[in-house]
Amino acid sequence: MFYVYIIQSKSNNRMYTGFTCNLRKRFNEHNNGRVVSTKNRGPFKIIYYEACANEYDARAREKYLKSGMGKRYLKNRLKRFLSLTG
């Protein structure tokens, strides 16, 4: 399985979207500062993830979620959660 995930920084509430085949390991890498794009922005919490059967689908879904339409989808999907976290 491959996972598309969204993490949110607990320090500045910014979100990051990515994909991986090992969600636990990748989440730990983000929190331990071993990912260049999120280094010094942690700690993080996982706020959303989806499982895909193959890498191609996961990459395509990640690309979509990073697009304007994908961001609107996430905003609507996570509306209640985002209103609680400010």
Backbone structural class: alpha+beta
Which shape, going by the Cα principal axes? globular
Oligomer: single chain
Total domain units: 1
Strand-residue proportion: 25-35%
Order of helices and strands: EEHEHHH
Query: Can you count the helices?
Result: 4
Quantity of strands, as a count: 3
State the distance separating the first and last CA atoms: 32 Å
Task: Walk me through the structure.
The chain has helices spanning 23-31, 55-66, 68-77, 79-85; strands spanning 2-9, 15-20, 44-52. With 86 residues, the chain is α+β, with helices and mostly antiparallel strands. It has one domain. It has a 3-stranded antiparallel beta sheet. Strand 1 (2-9) and strand 2 (15-20) form a beta hairpin. Helix 2 (55-66) packs across helix 3 (68-77).
Provide a short characterization of the protein structure.
The protein has helices spanning 23-31, 55-66, 68-77, 79-85; strands spanning 2-9, 15-20, 44-52. With 86 residues, the chain is an alpha+beta fold. The protein has one domain (2-57, 64-85).
Can you lay out the helices and strands and say which pair or pack?
Layout: E1 2-9, E2 15-20, H1 23-31, E3 44-52, H2 55-66, H3 68-77, H4 79-85
Antiparallel strand pairs: 1-2, 1-3
Helix pairs in contact: 2-3
What key phrases describe this protein's structure?
single chain; about 90 residues; alpha+beta
